[in-house]
Each structure stands twice: as C-alpha cells, then as structure tokens.
Amino acid sequence: MIKLIASDMDGTVLRNGAQELPEGFTDLILRLKDCGVHFVAASGRQYQNLRRLFGPIQNEISYIAENGSLCTHEGKIFYQGEIDHSLGLEIIKEIKKIPELEIALACERTTYVEHKNPEFLRYLREEVKYDITPVDDFSSVTDPFLKIAVCDFQGSSRYDSHFRELFKERINVVTSGNLWFDFIAPNANKGLALQSLMDQLHVKKRECMAFGDEYNDVEMLLTAGSSYAMKTCAPGVDRFATATTATVEEVLEELLEEYE
Question: I need a surface site. Which of 40, 159, 208, 212 has the fewest CB within 10 A?
C-alpha cells in the first residue's frame, strides 16, 4: 500500500506555466489523506510560496522546498542544506559576468534579490508570487544561503552546463523548469529530503510514490518505489521512472479507486 506521495510542482502538477493548482487537486489530496496516504509538495519553489499555493490545506501536507534545501513536516524543519557563504558569493560573482542572467538568493525566511532590474522584481512578486527582499548587494546578506537560483528568460539550458563545469565537485547545478537553473548544496536534493522524511515516518521504499519532469527530480524518482515521469518531461528523465503519465491526477484517481 502506498503511504507517501511526493510530487514536483512546475511542469508536473502545474502544467503549461500554470500558477494555480488544477481544479479538484486539493480534494484529491484530502481524499488520499482519509485513506492514510500523506502528500508532499516537492519543488524548486520557495517554502512560503508553496504554502500559499495549497491555501486551505497548507497544513495538511509536507514540503520539500528549494529543490531539497528546506524541508518541513508538521510545520517543523526536518532537513536543510546550506551553501558555504564564501562559495556562494564566488558563484554570484561569476553569474554576474553574464548580464542577462537574473539571480535570486534563497534563504529560510525570504528570497533576496538585488535592486538592479525592476521588471525581474515584478515578475517574482506578481507572477511567481514569491516573498522577496530587495538588497543593494548580495554581499550584505548574512542569512545562511540555501539556494542560488538563476533565471534566464531565453531558456535555462543556455548556461547551466557552463556553470556545472565551472563549479564541478564543489556544488550541484540542476535545471528547474524552462527558465531556471539552481545551485544547491552537495548535501541537498529532493531525493535525500524524501528519504529523510520516509525515515521519519517509517515509510518503506515500496510504500512511496513520486512524480517529476526535470533532472532536479531524478533523485526523488529513484528514491520512491513507484515513480512517474510526465510524458512532457525533459529528454531522458523517463529513464529514471517506473512509468509515465500525462497528469498526476489520473494516477491519484486510480489509486483512490483501489483504496476508497
């Protein structure tokens, strides 16, 4: 019996750039909970943003946020990854050498953004709906760095391999949707976070299900006993899953037919 379901959001539950959950999705989660199945939102998104996304049921689920760098269960942090401060500033300095790239520095309480581009601030506040704190320079931030997110409005695949080669063996660089790639601590990814939650809840591999569509989901897909790559996934991601699906909802509905 499946006891735990972890799903990516953008490109998986949220399709075609949607910023709101599909109609009826929260009802599916509550019905699963009544059957003893716990849901985990696993995303590159900010924790505060994920909570708002799930609105009235935000306290009914767990969260793997910032690509595994900040994870909570019942409102308490159970797993956190941190980027060395000096390494983080070194990475930011390199990113700034490419003017068209935008940087969002994720910390526990907020996401820091420099003042330089008002349109990027508007995009984060109004479209992505992030809690952001503008600063004059990232060097003034003293909070622990959880993730450095880079937005490229011309596509996340242009420079991710460049930075992956530049900082290989020092930090993980993963694509996170069509516009973003992220720098995350070596001890943080969605799979490690999911395994930590499984251990905490005494859930076995065969009792866990996961959904994803990008390479930042691969570790999570491998951690779960049953895993689904979206049919629209990045090329090759489906090789790491046990099956594919067009929507998360159709798999959840089939599961509920067995349990209800």
Answer: 159
